[in-house]
Every structure is written in C-alpha cells, then in structure tokens.
Amino acid sequence: MIKVLMVCMANVCRSPIACVVAQSLAQRQQPPRPWPLRLWRPSGPLFQSAGVMAGLAGERTDARAQQVLEKRGYARSKAHSRRIKPSDFSHFDLILAMDKSVLNELQRQCPAEHLGKLQLFLDLVPELAGQDVPDPYYGNLQGFEQVLELCERGAKALLNRLPRRAPDAQA
Fold first, then answer.
1. Which end of the chain is less crowded, N or C, counting CB atoms within 10 A of the terminal residue's CB?
2. What does the pLDDT read at residue 147?
3. Exposed (0-12), middle (13-18) or buried (19+): which is 143, by Cβ within 10 Å?
4. E strand or H helix that includes residue 48
C-alpha cells in the first residue's frame, strides 16, 4: 500500500481537503468490495494529513473547508489536526507540501535519506508546477472553493501517477 501525507501549515484547511479529495477519488477507482466484507482489505493508497506548525493538536477541520467539501459531494473530513513528526518521514512514501514555505520547513526537518519523498503538491499538475495552494484560512468561502478546485486537480494528477493496485496486491 502506498502511503501519502498531505502537509500544510496548521492542518485544518488545505491538507485535510486534499486528503479527503484524494481518498474519495481513489475509492472510486477501486473494484467493488468482495463478500464477506470482514475479510476485505483495501489495496489502494492511504492518505493522511499533517501540519508543520499545527498549534492546537486535535483541532477539527475548519468549518468552511467542511462546507465546501459537502457542497461538492465529498464526505466531511474526520481528521483532527496534528503536527508532522520525525517518524512520518520514514513511514510515508510521498510527502506533499501545499506551499513553498511548508516545503522549506519539511526540507529543514527531513532526514537526508528521505528528502526525495518531498514534493510540492501542485508540481503534480504540469501547468501548475511551482505554484502554491493558497492558504484560505483568513479569507472567505470563495478561497476555500479555490483550494478545493486545486486539490481536485492535484489529486487527479497524483492518482494518475500511482499504480492502480498496490504492489503487494498484484498477482
């Protein structure tokens, strides 16, 4: 199973949105669950989120982020904010930063052997490479809608680059 960590500043807006979108789109690509369900193990990618400066660990995803997710037909984020921890760099296969300042902080914290796992989220979309997913926290609902649109584009590009099935699930 491929493990992807989405990272923003506080882990209450951008990274939870990106995580929900990627997980939802990945689930749509999965084959139907076999019966009996209790024996079924997902083989698709695992998505989680974190923040480089998540101040209030355990804080829920911003209500405006939840609102735009629901409006677009996604499930509400069940994530609670958490700060990135040293073990994340070895645990995750890919760590995606929502903006350049987050990427710089991740590069500062990351052990040298895991630096190759770090990438700017929108670099996955060729026409958006080098751009940030803007932080909507101090803005209005329209900013959250823009973030959702960018996250959809980034998540689709990410899923197109990942194998359809995890290597351990292939025959």
1. C
2. 98
3. middle
4. strand 46-51
pLDDT at position 31 is: 59
Positions marked active-site:
8, 14, 135
Class at the top of the CATH hierarchy for domain 3-29+43-165 = alpha beta
- List Cβ<8 Å contacts ≥24 apart for 148-151: 148/17, 148/21, 148/68, 148/69, 148/72, 150/122, 151/14, 151/17, 151/18, 151/21, 151/22, 151/121
Question: Taking a C-beta distance cutoff of 8 angstroms, is the pair 146, 134 a contact?
Answer: yes
In the chain, the amino acid numbered 161 is: R
Q: Which amino acid is at 85?
A: K
**What are the domain boundaries of the chain?**
3-29+43-165
pTM of the predicted model as reported, rounded to 2 decimal places? 0.88
pLDDT at position 169: 42
> 10-residue block means of pLDDT along the chain (171 residues)?
96 97 90 56 82 80 96 92 96 98 98 98 98 97 98 97 58 36
**Residues shown for the chain:** 171
- For the record, the structure tokens of 30 come out as 């999965």
Mark 15-51 as b/e (b = at least 16 C-beta within 10 Å): bbbbbbbbbbbbeeeeeeeeeeeeeeeebbbbbbbbb
